[in-house]
Amino acid sequence: MPETKTVISIEGDRFHINGSWTYKGRSWRGKSVEGLLFNSRMANAIVNDENPATRGTWSYLDGEFSPERNTAEFIAALPDYHAHGLRAVGINLQGGSPQGYSWNQPWRISGFRPDGTIKPDYQARLQQVIAACDATGMIVILGLFYWKQSQVLADENAVKNAVNNVVDFLTSIGARNVLLEIGNEVDLPFAHGIIAMERCHELVTLAQERSSGKLNTPARRLLVSTSLVYPPRFGDKLLKVCDFLLPHGNRSHHPDSIRLLVVRNRAAVAYRGQPIIFNEDDHYDFDKADNNMVAAIEEGASWGFFDYRQTREKYEDGFQSLPVDWKISSSRKKAFFALLREVTSS
Q1: Which range of residues forms the domain containing residue 112?
Q2: Residue 3 falls within a domain, yes or no?
Q3: Residues 16, 17, 19, 23: is their CA dihedral positive or negative?
Q4: Domain with 54 in it: what CATH number?
Q5: Is residue 2 part of a domain?
Q6: 308-346, pLDDT tens digit by residue?
Q7: What would the pLDDT profile of 171-222 be if each residue is shown by its tens digit?
Q8: Side-chain-side CA neighbours of residue 218 (13 Å)
């Protein structure tokens, strides 16, 4: 069976890549960053808008939007991200809002057909990203479902089929550098209750059991979780099954909120010592002594950069807004990667 050379594993509340701690031996401001997994949300790295009424919105300055170009340019930027200390990228088979935040989302960005099969072009681009990250020594945090696109799936059986199909694909290619995120912010109103917070543990367990014994890793299976944005902590059902925790910092408007969120999860009776990874946070202040990233580091949690193009910003701004300039080109991107390089001494 083919398999990636890059292997992600968990020991205690920290991560190993290829059997060694990430950022081995590194401390910053007296806090160890060994075993953390700094990441950036790149949700739309493999998407394609199939709605002709909205597709033109994402055109490049020099031509129409191309999913192949989008993925190729993303892949080309990976070595630079890695050189600055980034070790994981978060993508999603149903993407994320190309506007950053938007209640009305008429575009059709989903890698699944109604029955839960994976669209071949999405699968091909996903495999390219996994291979490119493997070659760079990076990890893919792969999300399956996004709330505004979840209605594409016909019913609960289709949702389960989607999970099984993704797991089967990942294990068939020996994707040992992938962490699985069942749904992005499952406390939002998904179209199917089995994805939502109260029942998402069923899908986490499904993915774990489906992949059991099929990967040559310490866990012998995929490592699986899901993400939340509103609750102060994960519910007990999720804490009991998730291999790691994916809180979001978008609602944490002060660094102390990040600290409190980490403390609350670790204080829960059902918490089992899992790593905590913020894989989405749109609070920056990278030039200040205290910010959400710093707060996460101080609490021994990993942190993820969520960057989208804001009002009146240019093409260079944002890692989620289509079309994406995947280079480290804007002042905000440069500030994040500069701090990351300082923290990780990359």
Answers
A1: 8-344
A2: no
A3: negative
A4: 3.20.20.80
A5: no
A6: 999 999 999 999 999 999 999 999 999 999 999 999 997
A7: 999 999 999 999 999 999 999 999 999 999 999 999 999 999 999 999 999 9
A8: 14
330: which 2 tokens? 């804007």
Determine the Cα angle at 142 with ends 27 and 265, to 5°: 55
Write out the two tokens for 226.
């899901």
Q: What is the DSSP letter of 150?
A: G
User: How distant is the alpha carbon of residue 74 from its chain centre?
Assistant: 15
Annotate 16-78 with three-state secondary structure. EECCEECCCCCEECCEECCCCCCEEECCCCCCCCCCHHHHHHHCECCECCCHHHHHHHHHHHH
Q: Which residue shows structure tokens 């291999």?
A: 243
Q: Which one-letter amino acid corresponds to residue 229? A: V
Q: Does residue 1 form part of some domain?
A: no
Decide if 210 is inside a domain.
yes
Evaluate if pTM is beyond 0.90: yes
Q: Is the pLDDT of residue 256 over 60?
A: yes
* DSSP strand pairing (39-41 vs 304-305): parallel
Q: How many domains is the chain partitioned into structurally?
A: 1
* Residue located via tokens 């993704």: 166
